[in-house]
Amino acid sequence: MKKIKVTLFLILSICILASCGNKKTKVKETVKTKSYEEVSEIDFSNTELKKGEKAILLYMENPKKFNLYGYLLEGYTMLFGYDTFYELYSEKFLDNKNKFIHNENSASSFSLALSTIDMNDESIKAYKNTLISELKKEMNKETDIKAKDINEEFKKFISLVEEKIDLMEEIKKYYVSGEYRKDNFAKGKLLNDKYLINQEKTEQKYKEVYNLFFEAEKIVLNNLIIHLELGGLVAKENLLKTRELLKMFSKEFYATKLDFDESMRKKDESVAVIKEEDKENYINNLKRIQKTLDKTILNMEKIDKDTIKKENMNVENYGKVLIKIKEMSKLTKEIIAKMEKNDDEELDLLIPKYVYMNFNIEKDFVNLLK
């Protein structure tokens, strides 16, 4: 999948404008994968008791903070999963070895682009000043010693993200104001070095905390699913299953920095490329998620209104959420089919569309499951 400018969206209902890059030649050979009948379904049981205890503890000590951790990571994914600013900056100021290059033309064209392209300034401000600020307040509260390591990792990530946003603002101001003409790019070189170091550290820490939290969140959700199943709350059980499955798709599409073009690694070492020999297993895993999602949707369609009411959920809202889930399932099937055909022509648009839909429905999940 090509790493080009795409439509970006932010959590908290902020929509972001898209910009496009150049297309590359596609490999059309079909990837040989298993059929949907051949792949197994997702297992929602918790097998690792020690990890499970730690994850449940992290959730129980402060559910609000736990959910904000998730929003923090997903918000970063939405804003910087495809980093429009970095794409533009590297195009104007970096050579193919990531070395700083500068001249009047690159600086002025960068400034022009900043004034004509929506660089998500308001969205990033909301992310930093609202979401991160709220989370930091929760993090200042007393923390159980057993969950301290996870909390510490999030503190490191937040610090890097705040530095990243501040550096972006400083770089914008430096070039838009024309200050580079006064010092002949001296400060620009220093900003470049700081920005690239931060970019690498932030991306690496993002992967670490995303994977760490994803596993913890999965354990928490699985634990809730098991309790709902034992309690006979079939509507909430299936609703929670779809929530987890949709999160799995988001992780596979974004947190891995999915990129089918191995030449991208020459430009960005942080890109985890899906190599030719790994595509089969990767797509088979997506099919496992899809198969389980389809089965869960069928189960949800069989649930009657009385059952939904007994479980203290709004019938109308439940129906609306089900419609959205079915739309998302249709989209993920399309994405998987394109991956099988090695047709990445529209993946750079379809995947952000999916993740945006997933954020919208996340609010519905939270409201229904209260």
Please characterize this protein's 3D structure.
By secondary structure, this protein is mainly alpha-helical. The chain is 69% helix and 1% strand. The chain has helices spanning 49-61, 63-80, 84-93, 104-116, 121-139, 148-176, 179-183, 186-230, 234-255, 264-267, 279-302, 305-310, 315-340, 347-368, and strands spanning 9-10, 14-15. The chain has a two-stranded antiparallel ribbon. β1 (9-10) and β2 (14-15) form a beta hairpin. Mean pLDDT is 85; it is low at 1-27 and 261-272.
Secondary-structure map with pairings?
Elements: E1 9-10, E2 14-15, H1 49-61, H2 63-80, H3 84-93, H4 104-116, H5 121-139, H6 148-176, H7 179-183, H8 186-230, H9 234-255, H10 264-267, H11 279-302, H12 305-310, H13 315-340, H14 347-368
Antiparallel strand pairs: 1-2
Low-confidence stretches: 1-27, 261-272
Using only CA atoms, what is the Rg? 22 Å
User: Roughly how many Å apart are the termini?
Assistant: 38 Å
Question: Per the principal axes of the C-alpha atoms, what is the gross shape?
Answer: globular
**In which order are the strands of the major sheet placed?**
1-2
Number of helices: 14
Average pLDDT, all residues: 85
Q: Would you count the extended β strands for me?
A: 2
What's the SSE pattern? EEHHHHHHHHHHHHHH
Class by helix and strand content? mainly alpha
User: How does the major sheet shape up?
Assistant: 2 strands, antiparallel
- Portion of residues in helices? 55-70%
